[in-house]
Design brief:
The protein is 6% helix and 59% strand. It has 244 residues and is mainly beta. The chain has one domain (3-243). Strands 4, 5, 6, 7, 8, 9, 10 and 11 form an eight-stranded antiparallel sheet that branches. A seven-stranded antiparallel sheet has the order 15-14-13-12-20-19-18. Strands 1-2 form a two-stranded antiparallel sheet.
Length: 244
């Protein structure tokens, strides 16, 4: 289970791969090692108990997600339908309480899921994704993928506070500045869009906070050509240690 805390003095990152014996799941819960998720009375409780890398510190706490509405539609990301994406809670409120480090807050949240029948790098070249919520509670999600067969797939969805979804015309592309690793970034947006903060900067993936005319947005850029490079594969074990 990937868990990350971002703060003014840096971040705490944990993503430990574990063997099958560490997994248990049922219709309403999943547990991987010491961490897990469970649905209870329409709320998603996420318990985190991990050790961070590259510097080992404890990351332990609880996140309770309160969706304002649940999404019911899933979307195929490739022509063959081998990869699907589902925004389960486009808009939600999160209550966060951690023992290590000691902190707590509540605020705006989002929850989605991806599932597939093949490795991502087998079918995709790259993708761009962003999510933004304005002051009135309207959420906009933009998802663009480029497939290895030469096709492209784009989704531009807008959710009102009750969870009703509408397809909107995709805004024009906006080029963003490259990361320190030289990864190109682009997103869709009306008006001005700029990178306010880069949260993750890796050879193949970037997660950023964007400043837009509608308010702040979270953006992800993923290059699967870079991901499949042998050198990058060799580097993954330093961010994703294996146990069991």
């Amino acid at each position: 289970m990937n868990a990350v805390l971002y703060g003014p003095r840096g971040k705490r990152w944990a993503m430990t791969e574990r063997g099958a014996s560490a997994l248990s799941r049922d219709e309403d819960f999943i547990r991987i090692g010491g961490s897990g998720m469970s649905w209870e009375d329409g709320r998603l409780s996420i318990s985190i108990d991990e050790v961070t890398v590259p510097f080992p510190t404890r990351l332990r706490g609880l996140i309770v997600l309160h969706p304002s509405a649940l999404g019911r539609a899933s979307y195929a990301l490739d022509p063959a339908g081998r990869h699907r994406w589902m925004p389960l809670a486009p808009s939600a409120r999160a209550e966060v309480s951690f023992d290590s480090p000691s902190l707590r807050w509540s605020g705006n949240a989002y929850f989605d899921t991806n599932a597939g029948a093949a490795p991502l790098e087998s079918d995709f070249l790259h993708w761009s994704w962003s999510r933004q919520q304005d002051s009135e509670g309207t959420t906009t999600v933009l998802y663009d993928v480029a497939c290895r067969d030469g096709t492209a797939r784009g989704l531009a969805l807008r959710y009102d506070p009750s969870g009703e979804v509408s397809h909107i015309a995709p805004p024009p592309w906006r080029t963003l500045r490259r990361t320190l690793w030289g990864l190109g970034r682009a997103t869709r947006g009306d008006g001005g869009v700029r990178v306010e903060r880069t949260l993750e900067d890796t050879p193949f993936y970037a997660r950023s906070v964007l400043a837009t005319d509608r308010g702040p947005a979270v953006h992800e850029m993923l290059s699967l050509n870079r991901f499949r490079a042998p050198l990058v594969q060799a580097m993954l074990s330093f961010r994703m240690p294996r146990r069991g």
